Structure formats: C-alpha cells, structure tokens
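Work Package 3 (structural annotation) set out to generate three-dimensional models for the target panel prioritized at the project kickoff. During this period the team completed the workflow that converts sequence records into discrete structure tokens, so that structures can be stored uniformly alongside our sequence database. As a representative example, we reproduce one entry of 290 residues exactly as it appears in the project archive.
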Amino acid sequence: MMEGIDMMTKYMDDMISPYPIRIVDLKVDPSRLKLQHLKIGQVGHLPGRTLYREKAVFKEWALVFIADGRGVYQEGEEKETEVQGGAYFFFEPGKEYCFGPKPAESWDEYYINFRGPRVQEWLREGLVFQGEVKTAPEVHKWVHKLEALIQLMDSGIPTGADRAALQLEALLYELMISNDSGREGDDEHWPEILEDLNRMVYEPLHPELIACRHHISVSTLRRITKAHTGYPLGDYATRLKVGEAKHLLINTNLQIQEIAHLLGYKDPLYFSRVFKKITGVSAGRFRDMM
C-alpha cells in the first residue's frame, strides 16, 4: 500500500505547505461511471498545511478531515470553531468559509470533493452536515481509509472511481456512527430545549437565544433537535405552531386569521398554506371535521 502511495504524483506548493502535497482529480470520463448519482471530483492530502483561506467559496461539496495539527473553521458569519487532529467538517457549495491553521501553526489535511443527487439523502440522514465541526476517535483508522480511497481515485479506471464513491459513503456512515456513540450527553439538554420551543410558539423562533440559554452553539442546537425529532429545527418549530393551531381551532372560537396572528404569522394566507401542507387539510376543514 505504501509503495503505491509513494509512486503517486506529488507537488510542491509553498503557498499551501512546505511539504509535497498530493492532489488526484477524476481521471476518467464521468459518463463511463456506473454510479451517476454520486461522483468524486477530486481528493487530496495536504500534510503540514500552513495556508489560511478567507471567504472561500466552493463549487462542490467537500469533506475535510484533519489528521493532525490545529487551526480554525468558520462558516459565513457563524462563530469561529477551534479545530484539531481528528476533526472533520464539510463545505457546502456556494457558501463562504474561513478556515486553516493560525499563524505559525499547521495541520495535516485530507479532503474529498463530491457531487450528485445522493448528497441530498445524506443531508436528510445526517451523514453530511453544515456549519459544524465534529471529532472522530482513532485518527489512524480514518487516515487508513482515506489513503485507500485516494488509491482508488488514482487508479485511473472507472471501477476505481466508482469504488471510491462507495467507500466515501461507507466512510461517512462510519463517521456518523462513531460520533453518535458519544452523544448521550445531549439528552440532558433536550427536555429544556423542547420546553423553550413550546414556549416560543406564540413568537418568532430565535435559535441564538435558545442556544445561548443552554450554553451550546446554534449548530449543536440544530443537531440535537434533528436527532430527537427527525426534523430540522425550523421545520420542527413550525410543526409545534401547527399543533398549537389545532388546539386553538378545536377549543376556541377564534377566527383563523386571529390564530395566525397569535402564532406569529403576519400573512394568514401563508399560515393557511403551511397548515395544509403539514396536516393535509385546510384549517377551516380541520375545524369542521372536529
């Protein structure tokens, strides 16, 4: 395995690292791939990276795994997050990121650029996430898997690229499982978070206030909510409002427009569309059925 790695093309780029770096692009015609729903465009290994990038925007999704060293990661205007060996995060196409080692420091980086409809399913199931840094145990295990994936991409044959895509999905799944195994502590936050969300059905949702109250980041708040409910934070808050609307429709004589305003909807027509989308019937029809 190591002999194959040594034979790969290495590049010197003093702007990125004082050490040779490896970058492998997809070497075959994408139309020859069997897995059209997922394609890896490029993989790379940047040992001793010193380059810090500001407001970088990417065209494809990317997984970044930090094998060693330290630095920072920031998505848009979100709070800057410290990064160290074992950390991994994603870049979403079209968003701005600041990331990299701090001055006089470096990190050992692996990255994989990917695209395709399969990514949307990964987002729904939590294999890919946004605006957050997670940490994986046993760094050497993941480095071994990443090196094997680079080898497949460097093979220059369609089956190698397809297998690399399959290995990427397996890698992301294993990272998710390994990370979730240490999440029991999140359960202690959930009852109070749920209480806050229920209390806010009559006002606009303010994730920053809830996160601050529980001394967690907004991205952690979103992750905890998704883990316990299966819905993104905004969607779950909307469902709580619709649940309260049902209660008001059944137990009060308030007009639908009044209920909409009580729940923070300035446009009753928009509220009606949201209600029907979630329940399958209009608010008026729901009241008549009861």
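Residues 158-180 form the longest helix (23 residues).
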